[in-house]
Design a protein that fits this description.
The protein is mainly alpha-helical. The chain is built from 20 helices and 4 strands.
Length: about 400
Amino acid sequence: MAPPVRDHLLARGPLAERANTFLGKAWERGWLPPPALDPDALWALAAKPYGTRAGAAEHGGRSPEDAADFRERLERLCAALHAEADLNPLGRAMAWGQLSRVVKNRLAFGALWLDRPELLETPLAPPIIVVGHMRSGTTRIHTLLAADPAHSHTRYCDAYHPVPAPLGMNRVRAAMELAMLGLLNPWMQSIHPMAPAAVEEELAWLSAALHHSIYESQWHIPAFSAWSEARDPLPVYREFRRILQTDAAHRGLADKPRVLKVPAFAEDLATLLALFPDARLVIAEREHEAVLKSAISLAANQMAIQSDSCCLEAIEARWRHKIALREARMAAALEGWQGPVARACFDALNTDWESAIAGIYAGLGLTLTPQARAAMHKVMAASEDGHHHQHAEQLARFSATG
């Protein structure tokens, strides 16, 4: 079924409207208890299955500094949600769902690492890291490089349900989650196509350590964003590396270079490269105004569902700031970088993706095999009728009417 026309950047789907109204009434009339966006309540809920072992699980595999960093991030994020985000009932429920999962996974990973400390000794092949602003072609580069059978990649089910589970339950949970999200947000797949076993960026692994990037694209939380931007992100990226090692060991992929991609990498590139000094980099480039236009559309779509007081001017100001910040930090990190770097222009990828990919492989000193080319052709053929074309049509319509 085709989604309804998205006639405004802050449009909401009909099911989101109904769910928001129902939750508001249910809480007001006492049918359901409102979710508690409180750090202590979130910890108590997540810790209950562990009993007296909860404290050990919180610190499992982590330094005291990393454990303290997560605690402070949770406190500050919850405070920003109360003071700044102006969440509607659906937004409050979605925020509780996300944060309760984050804390539960935090303890689940800690318990796993206590039982299996060897996971954190997993040696990793040198990764290939795609760096660039969101909406600059990073997804296409990521997907094409991930198609190469010589490389490994993260799947959606592993990104958003990263704690290893038996019998493929992570994939089942991911399918159910995407089905529900698609009903609430009928334009989600046109903005960022997703499928349970498809190639996915590792943004959720950063959000698992409460990095600001995924949250500021959904909620108006400028105080938390500013604090987190100014804070040393090393504890976040140490957790990221631990999750990567666990995923690589669990899936038997540690010997293959992982193709990694998160737009926030540009913001924290110096820290990321300190943890992965043998990485190969691919820098995605696109004209900044085009990046901004698409980023505003993505953020507005996410925020409109969860708040009734979204401001497009504030969203634009936030993403102008993000582009400038990430550009400056990325440039500073690359000044001292001596490892392999390739660059790819958004327009060149659109014009002749094969030549652009060949240039990336040459720049990184990699061999582009016939098997890799064939796999990439399959990816491009499958994307011809993809949902992402609908987002381009939305942007064109907004430009024409705005």
